Amino acid sequence: MCTRLVGVVVLLGAGGCLSTTMQASGVPTGKPLGMRSVAVATLVNRTASPQAAAVARDLLIERLGSRTTLRTIVVPPELGVDPERFDRTRAQEIAVKLGVDGILVGTVFAFEYTEGRTNPGGLTTPVVHLDLRLIAASTGTIVWAATARAEKSLLFTYDSAALSEAAGSVVAQLTDDLAGRI
Question: What is the tens place of the pLDDT at every residue in 62-74?
Answer without folding.
Answer: 998 887 888 899 9
